[in-house]
Amino acid sequence: MTRRARTSDLMWIRLFRLFESRSDTLQGRLRDMLVHAVMDGFLSPGEALPSSRLLAETLGLSRTTVTLALQALGDKGLIVARPRSGFFVSEDLQATYLDARQRAEVPPAPGTVHWDERLKMLPTEQRNISKPVDWQRQPFPFIYGQFDASLFPTADWRECVVESLNSSAVRRWAPDHIDRDDDSLVDQIHRRLLPARGIWADRDEILVTSGAQQATFLLASLLLGPSTTVGMENPGYPDARNNFLLRTRHIKPLRIDDEGLVLGAALSGCSYVYVTPSHQCPTTVTMPLQRRLELLARAEQDDFVVIEDDHESELNFSGRPTPALKSLDTHARVIYVGSLSKTLAHGLRLGYVVAPAPVIREMRALRRLVMRHVPTNNQQVAANFIAHGHQEAFVRRLNLAYRDRARTLRASLEKYAPDLLPMSAQGGSALWVSARSGVNTRDLAARLYQRGVVVEPGDVFFAGLRPPTHHLRIGYSSIPIDRIDQGVKVIAQQLSGSQ
């Protein structure tokens, strides 16, 4: 009789499917699955694993792949081989990981610390953008700002990675930099990226951050107190609002129109104004030059500082992006936040800040307390990528692709879903659309997800307890152009069912 573990073949098939995206190799995927099965108690200490032949037949793998995976786990001490009997879960696990897990499952004893009472803030209760983790497996991922492998210049990036691995490069990035940034990336930001936006800054006015997100966190921590008033676009970027709310409750919502931030009376009384002028988040509208000049004049008049988040400024279909606010600033009233990950890949987490040297000095010291410095290997690869001209070529390619996708998306919406009205935009990677009043786009998004369509409800972008519920953000950075039309048809079908 064939030797079997007590678990069913069906369980192994289902477990193996769960680990589809965990590894680039079948051997790695099988190894990860078996570790999960042991650590989560599907197999107990001393219990037999299925034979290599049975696992190979059940999962459709070669016996060599299965044998190598089992041997690797044996080398790690998770399983042991017994002559003529096969592989078994190591009994040594009982005294370590598994016993600790069982103790954790026991109800807390009297006198146990009540952590809920000790927490001074609850970031989990903040309203935020959520994205399904399996969006890449959905046929119609109209999701904002995510990675499209078909457009990414993998060969160019690999060349830069290999370059960063030669011995002299490793000696530069591998040591602990304490609080310093990689000189090569600062040099590229200083000489290439900032001048392209019309900005001239000294090197001591530049700080590399782990994405624009960390830049906002550091600025909020240093500049805001409990009584500080911050003006912010409404709708606006939720995580900027959440970072500010950790420091002050005085967040003043500021109205926007089809030219971005409205320069109304609400600006008065603000100490800081956070703005996204290149492509307003989430509407994607661009603030024209005249309004930018008027905003800077108001900042001077009312004595407030502007925090300019210049995300996606490179994604401009006209090829002539409006000058950055910082480039027009003659009184050091603009703190500039830029990002590399918005165009390259969000998972890269590389951003930067331009601010007066005293501000950068304190941001650098605060960053050191949080994480010392941004990983310098990533910094050096990105510096190589920019220096070799790959960044500029990649942005040109993105603009061509995104322009065509945006046109296709607009045409499909007009044809199949005329009740969804998109805002006019000069670039970016998403459309902001409004449905008829009475349509709840959060409910619509949930129904669409069941049909393989991923869109983002717009209510999270608005401040207040009762935000409007008839807006959607429909991204086109991650969906192939040939799927857009069919995806909009599904949106239209579900939309008609909600009316």
Q: How many strands?
A: 16
What helical percentage do the residues reach?
40-55%
How many helices in DSSP terms?
Answer: 18
How far apart lie the N and C ends? Answer: 61 Å
Q: How big a fraction of the residues is strand?
A: 5-15%
The main β sheet shows up as:
8 strands, mixed
CATH superfamily of the largest domain: Type I PLP-dependent aspartate aminotransferase-like (Major domain)
Q: What structural category arises from helix and sheet content?
A: alpha/beta
The CATH architecture of the largest domain: 3-Layer(aba) Sandwich
Total number of distinct structural domains:
3
Low-confidence stretches at least 5 residues in length (pLDDT < 50)? Answer: 1-7
CATH domain class of the largest domain: Alpha Beta
CATH topology of the largest domain: Aspartate Aminotransferase, domain 2
The strand line-up of the biggest sheet is 4-11-10-9-8-5-6-7
Provide an overview of this structure.
By secondary structure, the chain is an alpha/beta fold. It folds into three domains: 9-98, Arc Repressor Mutant, subunit A, CATH 1.10.10; 138-151 and 394-497, Aspartate Aminotransferase, domain 1 (Alpha-Beta Complex); 154-390, Aspartate Aminotransferase, domain 2 (3-Layer(aba) Sandwich), CATH 3.40.640. It is 42% helix and 13% strand. It has 18 helices and 16 strands. It has helices at residues 9-18, 26-39, 52-59, 63-75, 97-104, 115-118, 154-163, 167-173, 183-196, 211-223, 238-245, 289-302, 325-328, 357-371, 376-387, 390-416, 441-450, 481-497, and strands spanning 79-82, 86-89, 140-141, 206-209, 230-234, 251-257, 260-261, 272-275, 305-309, 334-339, 351-354, 421-422, 430-434, 453-454, 456-457, 471-475. The strands form four sheets. The protein has an eight-stranded mixed β-sheet, with helices on both faces. A four-stranded antiparallel β-sheet has the order 12-13-16-15, covered by helices on one side. Helix 7 (154-163) packs across helix 15 (376-387). It is globular and about 85 Å long. It starts with 8 loop residues before the first helix and ends with a helix. Residues 1-7 have low confidence and may be disordered.
